[in-house]
Amino acid sequence: AQSVTQLDSQVPVFEEAPVELRCNYSSSVSVYLFWYVQYPNQGLQLLLKYLSGSTLVESINGFEAEFNKSQTSFHLRKPSVHISDTAEYFCAVSDRGNQGGKLIFGQGTELSVKP
Amino acid sequence: GAVVSQHPSRVICKSGTSVKIECRSLDFQATTMFWYRQFPKQSLMLMATSNEGSKATYEQGVEKDKFLINHASLTLSTLTVTSAHPEDSSFYICSARDQPTTGTQYFGPGTRLTVL
To answer: Which residue from A30, A41, A105, B109 could staple onto A96, CB 3.0 to 4.6 Å apart?
Structure first.
């Protein structure tokens, strides 16, 4: 069984500051890793994913995450945040061996960007 | 690409009535769709996995007779909340998987159900 821990429930930052949202996972098998973003009263949008290859993955809006197998982490980073990045961010894993099965979500991190 | 829609976006109903929520993959075929429930300020809880042409697989603790799931085609899955009660009020979100080997799920915008 897999589990996901997002270490910070809330992260307040000022606009243009860097941010890191932490995610650690536990699994006995190889996994796929995902970050999703949820704006208020909306569904989840895929931000980025790690399936294989380069351990550093990037999104189109400046976020990046690095898969660290030894530390079982997939932290999300952005060097300079905008007000519009304010949202809830969810880290998730799925089991590779099960042909990409169920997603296991972390508890979520509320990113609040202040002017 | 990979757009998933849900209908309705918001529904208010009286206790005891049934409510149907539709989930559609608009630009891809989805052999597998998932239904989640989300309480305020909480993460998503997987309710069931829906495979086209077969019975849904429910997670432990989810009443299959209360939450009826039908996946009649490769682009449509429905969730019917039968005899709804106030404690069923929640945000229901569906997702669809585009390819079984990558595990990427694309989510609908969600349906806010309020049972009076």
So the answer is: A30
